[in-house]
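Task card 7
Instruction: Convert sequence to structure tokens.
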Amino acid sequence: MEIAFYYSFKEFKKNYNIDFKNWSNTYPDANEIDYLNELRNKYQLFFYENNSDFIINSNWISSEYPEYYELSIISYHEFMQGKLIDYLYSNGFSNFDGDFLEIPFDTNVMDFWDDCNIRTRKNNAIIDDEKHKYLKDLFVFNNYTHQLDFDSKKFTNSKFATKKILEFLDKKSQLIISKIKFEKELVEDKDIFSTSQKIKIKGSLQSIGYLFSELIEKGFIEAPKRNGKDNTSAISRMILDHFEFIDKEEQPKPEDIRKTLFTENKLSADKQNQFKIPQSKIINTD
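Output:
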């Protein structure tokens, strides 16, 4: 499938999604990054700083050896004008004596754009540049004057369009790569979480129990209730469900947690004073 080529950034952007969808239908195993790379390779051919930098390669067969020339867009215009005229004469578009061209009104000479780019006895040069197939839209053949007209404004605008298109492709690629990286990290995080679901916590059961009781009392943790009171058994199970006490050889039982939280905490007053936790209402004033 030939990817559409645009000389206008507006047209390119407007058609991007439908063009990508059509390309994906043709190449179902490719992804959007592949598509962006295909586009980048195409538009890089037309990236140049000014019109004079734009060159088209040609191949000439001289009497001794092939010669290669770089044509400006002006020389290319003249070259294709001559190729088309030669082709029309060679293929019956002239009077019986071949004195002048006779081109039917309904004939689109531009249909011969690729056919005329062949070596002939009169003109043994060809355009062998990949850009050639995309340049056709810059020209129109006038059947009355027998002249190939060049749209210089469209060509000049293509310089600005190409730069914007390449910038668009780079930004699009970066966004997709960032998204892929983010999704990969999510999967990795999920794998880590699935293999080690609990938060590892260090400290004695007495100190951790006192810390949790303070957080509950000062309003930082909302404890489950039963009959309007803190459900101590539920709180204990929830702590064990989400935390692993790595300083203990065996994990405490819910009853051990319940005691250190509410009824039998044995942390000394001096150590309790090391935990300076204010009321949550004082801190969370925003």
